[in-house]
Amino acid sequence: MLDRTTTAFSHVKPGDTPFVSGGLRDFFLYRDLGVAEATHGKVIAHLVKANMAPETGTGWHRHEAEFQIVYMLKGWARFMYEDKETLVEAGDVVHQRPGIKHFLFDYSPDMEYLEIVSPADFGSIDVEPVCDIPPPTPWK
């Protein structure tokens, strides 16, 4: 049976929380959707959008998380998931299995995605490069 006492009801409207810097990556902006507070840190849900053109990307890393999905809302992003290049476009959903080594190296100026991760305070750990990274597409 689901324990309803460990989470709270949450309803966040578009104007309730702004996009802000200061998240995991300085070249993205993040909008909190209230889920981390409602779940007492069990899950985070936020919108992430491009703020600057890609230069170096995220670097090779993995997350200390039990669950992570990315749902691309607008634009596109190119990732390396281990040694496989993956184009994620608007409407695509990616489940990143725990510990997968990856690198987001390119994205469109209008890129925006929903990210849901458990736990909310997941860690990001730099890892040794898996393979070479293609160059990003210059913004015009």
What is the count of DSSP helices, taking H or I runs of 4+ residues?
A: 1
Low-confidence stretches: none
What is the CATH level 1 assignment? Answer: Mainly Beta
- End-to-end Cα distance: 53 Å
Protein name: Cupin type-2 domain-containing protein
Domain Cupin type-2: 51-103
Pfam family, one: Cupin_2
Description of the structure:
The protein is mainly β. It has one domain (23-126): Jelly Rolls (Sandwich), CATH 2.60.120. The protein is built from one helix and ten strands; from the N terminus they run E-H-E-E-E-E-E-E-E-E-E.
How would you summarize what this structure contains?
It comes from Polaromonas eurypsychrophila. The chain has 140 residues and is mainly beta. It is built from 1 helix and 10 strands.
Task: Name a few traits of the molecule.
five-stranded antiparallel sheet, globular, 140 residues, Jelly Rolls, single chain, mainly beta
